[in-house]
Write a structure and sequence with these properties.
about 290 residues; about 15% strand
Length: about 290
């Protein structure tokens, strides 16, 4: 799998299938190695991955993440194998335990202990039988991981991790915990906006929902942020460390900090300067590996 050093993370449920395919082709043409998509209230992430893979030639399609409560381990493992076989190994499966409101409130499941639940799920995936042609190479699985125990599980039971809403400091700590030889693929917010007041306001808007979720807040606390940083939508320091905003050079410098800290691949999620939920294609084109 040729993942490359840089990918694009984007929510695609507001795009039609045709628009999503066209966007994926543009991401591929810009030179990005991978396109990452989440799973929440919209499309099934594996189903949409099949569509995007069928409409691209070399781009890796990765889930960031596929919710383990959305399908049983055999369905997940065999969907992964099928997508890897159909696409000549261009599918990367990112798995996650999601969050209590999504699992219990939305899906009606019981939210188990994250690390224990994930370990059992991965063991069941490994044991799942498969009666179709195998992919050309072993498909890779990475985990949405923030805390030390899930990061350690990413190294012992998977092929790496996909931390979300993280700083370069977290990337450094993740690499120390995981050790060498495992994929470390953090998500990084980027915003092509040089006005500090506008950039921070848009950053607060982008991070607002995540600041209501314990998994992220607990991780930010581990990184040294406190209640004062969470007040009022986030302190300037909090926003500045979690959102790479500014001109092209400033954003690229932040990405370099993650690579220097041990990241193998960074998936950037753009914030639009107009406040819309659409990806900022100007920024994505500018920051592309071939840009």
């Amino acid at each position: 799998m040729e993942l490359g050093k840089l990918g694009v993370w984007v929510g695609m449920d507001r795009m039609t299938a045709a628009a999503g395919a066209a966007f994926a082709k543009r991401v591929e043409a810009w030179g990005y190695g991978a396109l990452w998509l989440p799973e929440s209230r919209g499309r099934n992430a594996l189903v949409h991955s099949a569509w995007l893979l069928a409409n691209t030639q070399n781009l890796v399609v990765a889930t960031g993440i596929a919710n383990i409560y959305a399908r049983d381990p055999m369905a997940m493992a065999n969907g992964q194998r099928a997508l890897a076989e159909q696409s000549a190994a261009r599918f990367l499966l990112g798995l996650g335990v999601s969050h209590v409101p999504s699992v219990e409130g939305l899906r009606g499941h019981t939210y188990g202990k994250p690390v224990t639940t994930m370990r059992s799920y991965l063991d069941a995936m490994k044991a799942a039988p498969y009666g179709a042609p195998e992919p050309p190479e072993r498909p890779l699985t990475i985990l949405a991981a923030l805390g030390p125990r899930m990061l350690a599980l990413s190294a012992s039971h998977a092929d790496g991790s996909h931390p979300y809403n993280v700083t370069p400091e977290h990337t450094h700590e993740a690499r120390q915990i995981m050790g060498p030889g495992k994929l470390l693929c953090p998500e990084v917010w980027v915003l092509l906006e040089t006005d500090a007041a506008k950039a921070r306001a848009l950053g607060r808007q982008a991070l607002a929902n995540y600041m209501r979720l314990d998994n992220y807040v607990n991780n930010w606390r581990r990184l040294g942020f406190s209640d004062s940083d969470f007040a009022g939508g986030g302190s300037d320091r909090f926003i500045d460390e979690n959102v790479a905003w500014g001109d092209e050079d400033k954003i690229r410098a932040r990405l370099e900090q993650h690579w220097d800290a041990g990241a193998d691949h960074i998936c950037i999620q753009s914030i639009s300067p107009d406040g819309s939920r659409k990806p900022d294609e100007k920024a994505l084109a500018l920051l592309a590996p071939g840009g």
